Amino acid sequence: MIELGRFQIDLEMRMLQLNGETVQLGSRAFDILAAVASADGRLVTKDELMNIVWPDTIVEENNIQVHLSALRKVLGQDRDLILTVPGRGYQLRQRRRNALSDEAGVRASGIRASGSQALRASRLPPPKSRLLGRDLAVRQIRALLEQTPVLTLVGAGGIGKTTVAVEAAHHSSADFEEPVCFVELAQLTTEEAVLRAIVERCGLSVPDPRVDVEQVVAALARQRRLLVLDNAEHVIGIMAHIVEALVAGNDALRVLVTSREPLRIMPETVFRVEPLDVPPPHSTDADILRCSAVNLFLRHANSLQGKVGSDSTELQLVGEICRRLDGIPLAIELAAARVVALGVEGVHRRLDDRMAILAGGYRTALPRHQTLRATFDWSFAILDQNARSLFRRLAVFGDAFTFEAMCAVVCDEAYTVANAIGSIGELVAKSLVGVEFEGPVARYRLSESTRAYAMAKLQAEGEQDDIAARHARYLPATRQSAA
Ligand SMILES: Nc1ncnc2c1ncn2[C@@H]1O[C@H](COP(=O)(O)OP(=O)(O)OP(=O)(O)O)[C@@H](O)[C@H]1O
Ligand SMILES: [Mg+2]
Question: Greater confidence, 123 or 116?
C-alpha cells in the first residue's frame, strides 16, 4: 500500500482509496498512477509510461494526457502531487510513503538510528512495474512469510529470484511495523561484512565497531521486521549461521533470502522459483501470446526495435526460442536484445551457439547478468573439484537420466560412485541439475543452456571424446537389457 496525499494506492488489488472508500479510476489511469508512485520520486519518462500502460500496442502520446487529466480530476486537491516535467515525463512531488510510515516504525522500535540511516533503511529497490507471470508466486510468498521465519527463494541463475523477492517485499511491507530492510550480498565475502551491511541497511545501533552476530541479534530483538537478504549462494555457510541466530533471537523477525542454493537450516522453508511459462510445441499463436516468457521476449525486443512478433511465422519462432531457453528471464532478455542485430530467425538459428550470442546485457546490469556464460560462471566458481568433474561430464546426456546411467558413464577409477553421490546432491542443491521423481526413481536433467555450458567445460578439459564414447557404449547396453 502506498500513501499519496489523502489517498492510499493498493498495487496488489489495483485499488485507489480515500478514507477507506474505493475511488473509481479507469484502468489506464491507474497504471499511470501506479508507475509514477512506484518510481519513488524518480522521473518516469513518457516512453517508459507508454511501455507500461500500452505494452503491446502503439498509441498516440496524447493518450497519456487524456488519462492523466482523468487521474488529476479524481485526485482533486492532491492533483499537484503528480508533477509534469515538460518534454520529459512525470514525477511524484513527495517521496512515497508506505501505509505504516517509516518514521512511525523507527519510533515504535526504539532503535537509535540517525535520520539518514532511517531513510536508507526504508529503501527497497523499486518494484518492476511490469513484472510478468509472478502474481501467484508473489501471493504465495506473502502468505508463507506469515508462517515461516525464514523463506528462501531458490532457483537457477537469472530465473528471477531477486525480482520476485523485491516485488513480494513491497507487497508485504504493510504487514510489518518496521521498514523492510534489503541487503545485497553479492559483493560481500566475510561474516563481518554481512553483519555490518545488515546493521547499516536496518539503521541499527550497535555498541562495538567490531560487530558480531550477538550484537545484531540484540539490536534486532523484538522488532517486527522483514529482512531481505539477496544473492546468498556464494556466502551460504556464513548466511546459514547468521540467519539461524537472528530468527532464534526474535520470533517476530521474518527473513526472505534469495539464493541459487538453500541455507539448509531448521527454520527454513524453501520456495522454488519456477521458470516463466513457455508454449509447448505446435501451440496456436493465441496460446503462444499467453505465455509470460513470450511476452517478456516481445516486450524487450520491441523496446529496442519495434514490430517483432507481428506475423505468425515469427511468433512461432519466438515461442521456440523461449522454450529452448527454458523460460529463464535473463536468457530471454539477452536473446531479445540480439534481435536488433540478427533478427528473430537469426537468433533462433544460432541457439546452438548460445554461449556466444547471449551476451550484451544491460550496461548497468550486474556483471554476472551481462552474458549467459557469466551467469553460469558465478555458479561454477563455487563448486568443489568433484562437483565440477561431474557437472561437465553430465553434458553428454541430452535427455533425463537415472543415477545408474550417470554412474555408468561418468565414474571410473579416479571418480568413484561415492564421489558421484555427494556431487549430484550438490549440483541439484545449487540449481544446476533438475530432479524429477517417477514413483520412487529419481531422474535428473540439465536444461539446454546448462548443458551447453557444461559441454564447453568438457571440451576445454579435453574429456569430450572419452565421455561421449562411454555414453555411446552405455546406450546399446541399456537397450539390450530392456529388450
Ligand atoms: N517476472 C519477470 N518479469 C520481467 N522481467 C523479469 C522477471 N523475472 C526476472 N526478470 C528479469 O530477468 C533478469 C534476471 O532476474 P533476477 O536478477 O531477478 O534473477 P536472479 O534469479 O535473482 O539471478 P541470480 O541467480 O543471478 O541472482 C533481470 O533483468 C530481471 O529484470
Ligand atoms: Mg538474484
Answer: 123
